[in-house]
């Protein structure tokens, strides 16, 4: 006879799970009591939200399904933010929660919460197991749902008496369910897309997270090079084409690269792959790419045309669709179009000059640029949420799909540190850098102890401006500098790190940036560098809410401007 606890562990092993994150409690105590007999690595986190983000980071870095376990009541509800984060970014995770015994359901027993109803809107599937006979099937179904079609999180809530009950071992020895492949795209749709691409004079390809998740980056590059079509990327699509590739436009949207936004607004065709056309990417919908015909390819039929009307929608695996298109299209050259884009890029570079100097202050852009110069070819970058996240997107040269791990759709502050732990455990051979702001870092800084406990060589760069920077930026630009509830003090981060036995140092000027990064890279165990940066630095460009992409706010040009032909810029459509 096998207990429910053993069946659950056996079921995870059958799914290929090797590592589980979590936090114990009364409702899952029988499960943890059976853990020593299971060949699994368990990572004890300091908070269940950390466990959820670690499972998420592990899944993004490994391509496998992340798993986190929590007890009932507050243990389960502490997972909710992490579950919502994974749902919005389509990350395959299975979350297992304990629940009060079945006979006590509905009695408001100690630590009873109806977590199934709480999480139904933010999961692909949320289910409760009340009988041991249903446990193995529930776990198999959870993993199949998490990775089938558009990936996402699944929650399985298990009553405590299921863990302690017993049944015959055959109930836990069935194999994993095989995910069904997406149906192939229709030939008629592929031919129509080919014709639209062939007729375009100013095409732009748009790459989203769905393209990266599908493994379609190589096919995208082949398609772009054949068509001579520039590629703009969403935040989670960065790396779909190498940053240094001549067709790479960088990130699009609210804080995207200027040339990417201008190209989209002037394009006569947009072909999007695995993206949602969300508000941060599109800006004002009725003014979005007004001259462009639009092709939308996504694995989720519900996303086609949901936010922006399109001329052609194709439902299917993004990699499969791109490969078929790349086989069909004929080579093209768009010299005039590419030259217009080069003018926009040159003008944007001149405005930037690494954000100029701020007297004795350290420009945060220079920190991110330096990290990009030092990074090895296999470096994984985990970014928390805020201004620094946008600087990472703008200045770090992402060369590989999936090289950036960050909370995109939900924008979850505090995601960074636990996600970096999950990523490092998934890819121990890779260098992992966490880039966080002082606000987001403080939200989950307790997980430093987890990094030390697991002896992980995580490199941490805290970009400390003493503010909740992105909110402060809005206050400066749109609320007459009324800095309410955004100035933020922080503990001595170097002392905090040192209390954990972590290598730590503080940098306050550009002169110390490179040497501090170099020392952090060779430290044993976690290492933290706090960069005290310009407090009121702004993220440019910025598309104000409710405006078109080409109405973006730009950094003023330097006073001495001689390297750009402004008549040519104006002729190319510069706003």
SSE diagram, text form:
Elements: E1 2-3, H1 4-14, E2 19-22, H2 29-33, E3 41-44, H3 48-62, E4 66-70, H4 74-77, H5 80-88, E5 93-99, H6 115-119, E6 125-129, H7 135-147, E7 153-159, H8 160-164, E8 166-167, H9 187-199, E9 203-207, H10 209-214, H11 217-227, E10 231-233, E11 248-251, H12 258-266, E12 269-273, H13 279-282, E13 293-298, E14 312-315, H14 318-328, H15 335-352, H16 364-374, E15 380-383, H17 387-395, E16 404-406, H18 416-426, E17 432-437, H19 438-443, H20 448-453, E18 458-464, H21 469-478, H22 493-499, E19 503-507, H23 513-522, E20 527-532, H24 566-571
Parallel strand pairs: 2-3, 2-4, 4-5, 5-7, 6-7, 9-10, 9-12, 10-11, 12-13, 13-14, 15-16, 15-17, 17-18, 18-20, 19-20
Antiparallel strand pairs: 1-8
| Mean pLDDT reading | 94
Strand portion: 15-25%
Tally of alpha and pi helices? 24
Q: In angstroms, what is the radius of gyration?
A: 25 Å
CATH topology of the largest domain: Rossmann fold
| CATH-derived architecture of the largest domain | 3-Layer(aba) Sandwich
Main β-sheet description: 6 strands, parallel
Q: State the distance separating the first and last CA atoms.
A: 73 Å
Helical residues, percent:
25-40%
Oligomer description: single chain
Number of strands: 20
Structural class: alpha/beta
Question: What would CATH call the class of the largest domain?
Answer: Alpha Beta
**Uncertain spans:** 560-575
CATH superfamily of the largest domain: Thiamin diphosphate (ThDP)-binding fold, Pyr/PP domains
Label the overall shape.
globular
Number of domains: 3
Strand order of the largest sheet: 3-2-4-5-7-6
């Amino acid at each position: 006879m096998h207990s429910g606890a053993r069946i659950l562990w056996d079921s995870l092993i059958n799914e290929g799970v090797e590592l589980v994150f979590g936090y114990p409690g009364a409702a899952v105590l029988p499960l943890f009591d059976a853990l020593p007999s299971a060949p699994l690595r368990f990572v004890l986190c300091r908070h269940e939200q950390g466990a959820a983000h670690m499972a998420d980071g592990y899944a993004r870095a490994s391509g496998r399904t992340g798993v986190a376990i929590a007890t009932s009541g507050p243990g389960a509800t502490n997972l909710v933010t992490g579950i919502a984060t994974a749902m919005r970014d389509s990350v395959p995770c299975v979350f297992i929660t304990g629940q009060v015994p079945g006979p006590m359901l509905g009695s408001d027993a100690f630590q009873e919460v109806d977590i199934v109803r709480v999480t139904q809107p933010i999961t692909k599937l949320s289910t409760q197991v009340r009988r041991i006979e249903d446990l193995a099937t529930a776990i198999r179904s959870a993993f199949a749902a998490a990775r089938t079609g558009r990936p996402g999180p699944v929650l399985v809530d298990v009553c405590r008496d299921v863990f302690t009950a017993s049944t015959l071992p055959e109930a836990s020895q069935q194999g994993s369910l095989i995910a069904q492949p997406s149906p192939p795209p229709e030939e008629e749709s592929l031919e129509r897309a080919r014709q639209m691409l062939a007729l375009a004079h100013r095409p732009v390809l748009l790459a989203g997270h769905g393209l990266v998740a599908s493994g379609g980056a190589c096919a995208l590059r082949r398609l772009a090079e054949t068509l001579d079509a520039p590629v703009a990327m969403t935040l989670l699509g960065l790396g779909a084409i190498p940053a240094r590739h001549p067709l790479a436009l960088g990130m699009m949207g609210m804080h995207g690269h200027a040339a990417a936004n201008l190209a989209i607004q002037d394009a006569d065709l947009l072909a999007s792959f695995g993206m949602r056309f969300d508000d941060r990417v599109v800006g004002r919908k009725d003014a979005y790419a007004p001259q462009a015909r639009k092709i939308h390819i996504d694995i989720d039929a519900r996303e086609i045309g949901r936010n922006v009307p399109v001329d052609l929608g194709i439902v299917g695996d993004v990699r499969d669709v791109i490969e078929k298109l790349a086989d069909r299209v004929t080579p093209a050259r768009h010299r005039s179009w590419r030259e217009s884009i080069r003018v926009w890029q040159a003008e944007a570079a001149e405005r930037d000059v690494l954000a100029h100097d701020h007297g004795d202050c350290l420009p945060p852009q220079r920190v991110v640029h330096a990290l990009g110069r030092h990074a090895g070819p296999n470096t994984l970058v985990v970014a928390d949420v805020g201004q620094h996240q946008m600087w990472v997107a703008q200045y770090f040269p992402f060369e590989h799909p999936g090289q950036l791990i960050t909370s995109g759709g939900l924008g979850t502050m505090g995601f960074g540190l636990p996600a970096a732990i999950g990523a490092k455990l998934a890819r121990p051979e890779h260098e992992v850098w966490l880039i966080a702001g002082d606000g987001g870092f403080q939200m989950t800084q307790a997980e430093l102890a987890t990094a030390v406990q697991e002896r992980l060589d995580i490199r941490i760069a805290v970009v400390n401006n003493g503010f909740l920077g992105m909110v402060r930026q809005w206050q400066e630009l749109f609320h007459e500098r009324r800095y309410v509830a955004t100035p933020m003090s922080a503990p001595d981060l170097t002392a905090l790190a040192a209390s954990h036995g972590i290598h730590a140092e503080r940098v306050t000027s550009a002169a110390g940036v490179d040497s501090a990064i170099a020392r952090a890279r060779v430290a044993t165990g976690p290492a933290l560098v706090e960069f005290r940066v310009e407090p009121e630095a702004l993220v440019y460009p910025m598309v104000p809410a409710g405006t078109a992409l080409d109405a973006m706010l730009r950094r003023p040009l330097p006073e001495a401007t001689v390297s750009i032909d402004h008549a040519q810029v104006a002729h190319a459509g510069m706003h």
